[in-house]
Every structure is written in C-alpha cells, then in structure tokens.
Amino acid sequence: MTSSCRRPEHSAPPEVYYNEAEAKKYSQNSRMIEIQTQMSERAVELLNLPEGQPCFLLDVGCGSGLSGDYLSEEGHYWVGVDISTAMLDVALDREVEGDLLVGDMGEGMPFRAGTFDGCVSISALQWLCNADKRSHSPPKRLYTFFSTLYSSLSRGARAVFQLYPENSEQLELITTQAMRAGFGGGMVVDYPNSTKAKKFFLCLFAGATGALPKGLGAETADRAVSNQVQYSGQRCRFKNMKGKSVKKGRDWVFEKKERRRRQGREVRADTKYTARQRKPHF
Hints:
alpha/beta, seven-stranded mixed beta sheet
C-alpha cells in the first residue's frame, strides 16, 4: 500500500486538493487517463450488468468524467457526484454525457429509493477515512454514505469501488460500515502478488446474495503473468491526449448522436458529411 507521505488525502481536503491545476491533469495526462479508464472498465465488469441492456448508473467521485466516458461508450446513462467544483468544470468543458452534481459523499446520496441499477467509484472512497474537520467522524460519514447509497440502489444491484486503502485497519473500517448499512459482498483484489498492478475493488451487493467475483491473476503464477500482460497491453486503446474517448469511426459517431437525441439534447442532423475523414491541410 502507498506510503502515507505520498497520499493526496493527507495533503488537503478533496475540494481543496483537486483545484484547477490538479483538475487539468485529468484531461491532459495520457497515463492518468489510461489508468482511470482501465479501472473503470474493470469496475463495470464487476457490476455484472445485463448484457446489451442500457442501465442507469451512479458514479461517485466522478471527477472530470473519465469513468463516465467509459459508461457512455458501453451505452449506459449515468449521474456523477463530486465535491470538487474544479473537477466538475473540467467535465463540463469535456462535454461528458452524464448529469453532474456537486456533493459530499460523507453527507449521503440525495436520491430517491431504487433510482440506480448500479454504482461505480474510482479512487474516491478512501477520502472518507480522513477527518478534515472537527465535526467529521470517519465511521459516521462512511455509514451515512453507505446507508443512503443502499437505499438509492435497486434490489439486486451492485456497487463497485476501486480504492487505495492505507492499511488493513482502513479496509476493516470501510467494510464494517458497508455491512452495517445492509450490503453484502467483500473485497476483490486483482494481481495480489504484484506491487504495481495490485488493485483493490470493494464489490457490494444490495439486497441480494451472490458469489464474490474472483480477482484477476489470483489463480496461478502463470495465469497471473499472462493476465498482467493483457491488462497493461490495453494501452494502445487510449491515444487522445485531451481526455476524450477514442473516436471509433462513423458508426461510433452515429451511435453517440443517437444517445444524445434520446437524452433530449440538441443534435445536428446527419448528412453524407457526418464523421467524414478529411485530408490533412499543409
């Protein structure tokens, strides 16, 4: 686990740490974009959503909308919540397709019961383990978050959190409060024998029991090596330096325009010039 001196949650509260300068990194740093998208892909896989069926998802700690981009690519609708207005401004500039909301996850999720078909969260949950104000109690804030999240999910839905726990005590605190709120499930660890590729995913079930998914690379040493190579070999997918999803040709453009029409947004009419590749000008 990461050394405490390098952990951003020890530097400042999230709404202060993720200022304009820090937020810009999430639209300009190709490595950061690549890692965020890979973790989002894994989180959606662990959600075990119905194949070929659009779902309504919650993205907690959505930041600049990188994970939301992946949700949109998969054909899902989503709402993003984040405490950093600077990060949400970047998401707005990038014209993400989800709806955005400013909110502190430690104060609970303000949604009606049964609203969402699932929840994802990338690199956000560990922030609740810190008391940034005198009034903050990490156990109470975690319980408030998990209990309100539980009620906002439809029965049988899953919530998947990728997180960076500081130590085993933090893991126990998080899982204890999640179970108190009514969730089932547990921790899924990908590549447990690797220092660089190791990732923690808290996989929670709302109102239904199920077998906890297996972590990647956990079967045998040989399988772990091949999985790890496959995981890191996905770098070629992420070429765009500005944080937008990789364009996938004419069909991808038409599909995105149709999604926006279904959302009631104003979209230009399709013509024979739509998504046409233009010759470079010198």
